[in-house]
Amino acid sequence: MNKMTKGVLCTMLTATMLAGCSSNNTNNTGAANDAGTGSSVAKSVTLKMFIAQPRFKEQYDNYIAQFVKKEKAEKNIDVTVQLEMPTADNASQILKTRLASNDAPDIFALHAVNEIPSYYKAGYLEDLSGQPFVSKLLDSVKPSVTTTDGKVVALPLETLSWGYLYNKTIFAKYGLTPPTTLTELKAVTEKLKANNETPFVLSYKESWIPQLVLPLAVGGMMKTEDAEFVDKMNKDEGSFTEMKSAIFDVFDLINENGTAKATEVGGDDGAAAFAAGQGAMWLMGPWYAETILKSNPDLDFGVAPLPINDNADATLINLSASTSLAVSPTSKNKEVALDFLNYVLDDTDSNALFQAMKFNPVATVHTYEMYPWIAEATSYVKAGKSVQDPAIPQSVKDEVGKGLQAYYAGQMTQDDVLKALDKAWKSYNKVNK
């Protein structure tokens, strides 16, 4: 989710071929033994991966390099990995185009809650139920990558407990605590402004960032007032007008008390601004922790639920599994692709990977210590102050992101945005019924 680029970052990690390899090696997935001589001949495999997390390029590069060495040592396979890392704004459309044109990557990332249902229905996901990693998944995580007919079709990378980020040092300086209602949030905002502090960092250059208000608002309302909202929308019987106040009351408050030039600031720049204390709060999840701490390793920040109205019961942490790894059923290198997926939850090595990316533990083999901001978010969950991420189609989230960018810029009204969302969901229903 780095700032938008039109290009695609590619990483080539190549294991050295054995000196005796002949030119007629093919992309087979097993190491062959010459039956006549007993000599071992390495096979060459090119594995294509598509993961829209360019901010973690270094971590993936390192882990893939470890996998390449492991595959060579254990199976005598020379693996070349082509890693595509587009930005989040571009990734979904690029991937859908590839899949529809029979140009699927061997391994690709998708959003567990938003995309697994439609991708599975389209036949784009390999059944992974029998893979070794499945038995390691935490009971709280496994359902997010399991289809309605009981098949595990992805490996979860990011499980998220999020709301917004706040600067604990700034809050402590003025005796503030995370607000539980919208009125309290307004009071916190006024107290910060009275002390010449900017309440919010705004970063709307990438459309996925402003859309974060949507699942928070919908989740809070479904937990307290409108439990059937998603079901109604799936039946063309609902409307986002039911969510108007929940979305825009808090979004307007944030926009009126934030940093300037939001549409010119992407995720990375927003992380740098938050790390520098340019705003006390940021509508963002802890998935940006690694980027924030790279800018300011000493920053003390927390995660709190975002108030959407004056009902404290609607102020909730969002629980979700987002970025997950799937394997294409059409992969010609399926054995090696599955080897990599299982290596992602290796009993030993995966601890360092998940800790380096500052992800929550997802498996029983994860024994690393929980980060403070994760522990804080978890405390809300344990107190019953959380809600499962509502199953909003990705196309609708894409639409709200663009709509809220335009709304912030004065190019769309609230009603314009809501009508666009209703239309996007109805279009989704037509395709997926």
From TrEMBL:
Q: What is this protein called?
A: Sugar ABC transporter substrate-binding protein
Q: Which SUPFAM superfamilies match?
A: Periplasmic binding protein-like II (SSF53850)
| Alphabetized UniProt keyword annotations | Signal
InterPro entries, sorted = Bact_solute-bd_prot1 (IPR050490), SBP (IPR006059)
A matching Pfam family: SBP_bac_1
Signal peptide span: 1-19
